[in-house]
Aspartyl/asparaginyl beta-hydroxylase domain-containing protein
Amino acid sequence: MSQPAFSRLPLAVDLPQLLQALSRIPAQAWKAHFNTGYYEGDWSGVALISPADALSELAHGSGVAVARDPWLQDEAWARALDLPLSIRSARLLRLGSGGRIHEHRDYDLGAPDADRRLHIPLLSPPGVDFMLDGQRIPMKAGELWFLDLARPHSVDNWGEGERVHLVLDCLPEAWLEQQIVAGLATTPAAGVGRAAGDLARFRALLESEPALCEALQGLDDSEAFIARTLALASERGLRFGREDLRAAMRQGRNAWSRQWSF
């Protein structure tokens, strides 16, 4: 059986205890994410457990799992995660209000024997769009999700509050694999994110408003075209970013090329 894109596991975690532990993390413990080219705004983290061979405490690795100070100093983390998991990495990842994580893949998770990445939303405002393979994953606080992040994914925090997930990398052992499969039957369907919806609405406006098309015609420079499109969309209360527009432009070119392929 091929690995699913996502699954909400039929397991419970102690969200109140996790939130209490989160509240005890000092402000200075949060460190900016090392993939600085992947995001805009505040994307930061706190390492609870990390591989001994990781280049930084927030980075990936394949070595022996090492418990870091925040985990060792607060036993609530271990109590709240009382599950038979072999955890190689445990990180708190925070995306601030207005923050964006651009679409990317975590290629280290692509092999059949790679770690399985689990997400537990701790703080999850309604304005957060976690996109996986172009679909919005409807994660709620306190749920435990498997996500195949070797696939394209991105995150937008359109809301006013910060988004914090507890992210676990676990060995692909039989019990965990069974829980991933067991969760598929009750996993809610994925949806459409705000950026994709607003981009579709802007396309519809282009078809119905000739003046809007005229404002973009003749812009041969792609950056000028993108900047003008974003400005026109913003004037109409539509929000999507440069990366969303570039992806749509690539898809459009690919579709045009495919129709002439024999």
